[in-house]
Amino acid sequence: MSSTIEPAMTEPSVKVETRRQPMPPRERLEAMFDVKDLDAIYGSKPAVKGVNMEIYKNLVTAIIGPSGCGKSTYLRCFNRMNDLIPGFRQEGVIRYQDTDISGSNIDPVAVRRNIGMVFQRPNPFPKSIYDNVAWGCRVLGMKDNMDERVERALTQAALFDEVKDRLKASGLSLSGGQQQRLCIARAIAVEPDVVLMDEPASALDPIATQAIEQLMHQLKSQYTFVIVTHNMQQAARVADMTAFFSISRGAEGERWGELVEYDATEKIFTAPGDKRTEDYVTGRFG
């Protein structure tokens, strides 16, 4: 980010939550991911190009930007979910704790063991509440102390007290907000380092949305969260760091997403260093 660009003078349209403890300087933060020159490509069409950024341990990092800028594609690069899409390829490096997880010699299943994901819409399995949470543990051979694992994950997801008397009931019998918390419990039951969230509250009502946001605040001491959101108010409420992506266009009409600015959330929303970020967060485009 260039220091020659004047800070935004426009009154921000999004209120940033006041944090109880100031975030440490970036040089004191521990990088969980180090992304270098990342391109994500479907066939011959790039979705994102040239991304460089570090994502820090035990923080909530939000990815914002207009539709079509490659936010979800970028998020899925962190746990190799894009590998499941025919014709997808990526170039560049994603280092996770000093290991390049984008390499062909890396087992994507092993990556997903450490980097879980919660999707836009709740997707509980047609199984009991208990079996939903236990599923990943069983697949990975983590079969000891299963009752304790399930209870701990449901407690961390602030759901145990609501379902402790009906663990054999179908996960599909829960409300939408409860189903999404069940999916969070399923993701954290295998004790990952990172939880990716792709618009996790977009299908939820305000009360359920607040519950999901509170969970991120409560759990970030144990997990690193990376969240894609179209809701700038949500990013301002939950995120420590925010990355703004926008759409670039080539000479022949080609479009791709690019990282415009990445900084502490307060700075992104109150004094961005790039005019494109200012225009987006103040509602002038996007």
Hey, roughly how much beta strand do the residues contain?
A: 25-35%
Terminal CA distance: 21 Å
Order of secondary-structure elements: EEEHEEHEHHHHEHEHEEHH
Number of helices: 10
CATH superfamily: P-loop containing nucleotide triphosphate hydrolases
Name given to the CATH architecture: 3-Layer(aba) Sandwich
- CATH topology group: Rossmann fold
Report the average pLDDT across residues: 90
CATH class annotation: Alpha Beta
Shape: globular
How does the helix and strand content classify structurally? alpha/beta
| Amount of helix | 25-40%
Order of neighbouring strands in the sheet with most strands: 6-7-8-3-9-10
**Poorly predicted parts:** 1-12
The largest sheet, given as strand count, sense and whether it forms a barrel, is:
6 strands, mixed
Radius of gyration in whole Å, from Cα? Answer: 19 Å
Number of domains: 1
> Total number of β-strand segments?
10
Describe the structure.
It is a single chain. The protein has 286 residues and is α/β, with parallel strands linked by helices. The protein is built from ten helices and ten strands. It has helices spanning 71-77, 108-114, 129-139, 146-156, 160-163, 176-188, 206-219, 232-238, 265-270, 275-281; strands at 31-42, 45-56, 60-64, 88-96, 99-100, 115-118, 194-198, 224-228, 241-249, 255-264. Strand 1 and strand 2 (45-56) form a beta hairpin. Helix 4 (146-156) packs across helix 6 (176-188) and helix 6 (176-188) runs parallel beside helix 7. The longest helix has 14 residues, at 206-219. It is globular and about 60 Å long.
